[in-house]
Amino acid sequence: MTDRPNTPLLDKVRRPADLKHLSDHDLRKLADELRAEMIWTVSQTGGHFGAGLGVVEMTVALHHVFDTPRDKLIWDVSHQCYPHKILTGRREQMLSIRQKDGLSGFTKRSESPYDPFGAAHSSTSISAALGFAVARDLGGDCETGHGDAIAVIGDGAMSGGMAFEAMNNAGHLGKRLIVILNDNEMSIAPPTGAMSSYLSRLYAGAPFQEFKAAAKGAVSLLPEPFQEGARRAKELLKSATVGGTLFEELGFSYVGPIDGHDMESLLSVLRTVKVRADGPILIHSITKKGKGYAEHRADRGHATAKFDIATGEQKKAPSNAPSYTKVFAQSLIAEAEDDPKVVAVTAAMPDGTGLDLFAEQFPSRCFDVGIAEQHAVTFAAGMAAGGLKPFAAIYSTFLQRGYDQVVHDVAIQRLPVRFAIDRAGLVGADGCTHAGSFDIAYLSNLPGFVVMAAADEAELRHMVRTALEIEDRPSAFRFPRGEGVGVDLPERGTALEIGKGRMISDGSRVALLNFGTRLKEVQEAAEALAQKGITPTIADARFAKPLDEEMILQLARHHEALITVEEGAVGGFGSHVAQLLAERGLFDTGLKYRSMVLPDIFIDQASPRDMYAVAGMNAEDIEAKVLQTLGVEVLSQRA
After folding, report:
1. Which is it for strands 342-346 and 366-368: parallel, antiparallel or unpaired?
2. Full-model pTM
3. Which residue from 62, 152, 390, 509 has the least number of CB within 10 angstroms?
């Protein structure tokens, strides 16, 4: 079962133009081969899985009917783009996906002309496609030319407010624009909210055969002799819902729902739309996430490690320590057991943030708001103002989407929302789109905010407790993806003194001031330096705001050099330390100060260690920074 599948038709496809000459029958066979190829590929590499399996037929039909890359095909989030990549000249590179120097797991403009718009965050495709449509109509320059703009967006992504902002604008402009709603009743987790219920009502209570007939009708898009019967069928379906569709109210012609795995339906609708559409149109396609392999799994195979095709067993390395995410979840559950005011909020990531475990214990106190980070932040702010103790568990990279709300609805009002920031630092295979690079900087500059970073899993447990006890202002604690370092875990966390760091070890000449989980690398660097006759002092800041000014000034006054280390971009912890040292005149006395931060580039996917090597933040890099700061000639004199 591990052998590569036999794919005679797919073997002839080097680019989408090769699909133009295939019959409808051959296109159905090609879809079967493409699905088999994708299953085999991801079994070898791991990666996003379920979403791609769900759009195999859609991908084949789109590339057959439309003329990519002249026609711009934009995948929302784009973790469903693996079949697209296979058909657009990247099949032989697929075994490198999400690896160092390999293909991105998402669409990427620099990777292929068939990727007109990079993605990896949700709900952006309609805005981008509308931008392409306007560029087309106003004579914009594009190397691949201008044709149709097609956005493929999932029902989960449609819960993001940005999608509706774009549809509202598109309906107003009236540009020819094609939006395909890929409705699989699921994004990463089961969908939540009124939008999901609305879509369900659109196709509840009638068999697919009727929908298929109505879809083929497409009403105004069909030749006149067929319009009346199709119009009656569509009106019958509409009357069974709410007398019209939300999409039509926004100015879109609506076609569907259609069976997104029925090649005949897809080709019929897409061909008709291509010929007849003269304004914005939405095609509602019903699919199964994980189709053909993982549709019966709870997550429909959203993402997976390498796996055995026959058994489905994933080939994960054994865990030596609990993950930070699990430690956070268990710590929050323990606090919630004692305090009924503790509530939790996530934005469509209950599994990723560990709140699925919290929800099992406290279903009425856990809120998944869907892909809606802006709402999540203000919702949590409202709960805080109402006397609850909300923890908003949001990935660093996704919290960026709610930054205005963090400023205006939380920070200015000094509301005690506790932000549990998962995926801090560099995250590995998901690359720069999911890296938690900026939260230290964008939170530490907000007045009154408490900003913490856990150096290990025990510290994380203490920071959960610390955040719970902060009731007069907002707070945040950050932690990375992956396993902890294996320290002993206390049964319960103990609240830390706000703005107080801790001394790890005493040394001389150079002080290493850590913020976050580089502490292990700092300690390894110190061991290597000890072999060279240098014994650094090591301190863990714990807080980027407020700073432990007393500890920092002591380190600066009693060492030749002070080096800060953090897993974040410039403008964060090290910048605040530099501001303190400058204001207190420490630079006037000859202190050598260096700040190790993430470099001013977006780092492509690789293993976390390889990514940190690019960033220059592994133990050997810290060791080199110490030697460079002290000076080789000084070192040789003391040898």
Report:
1. parallel
2. 0.83
3. 509
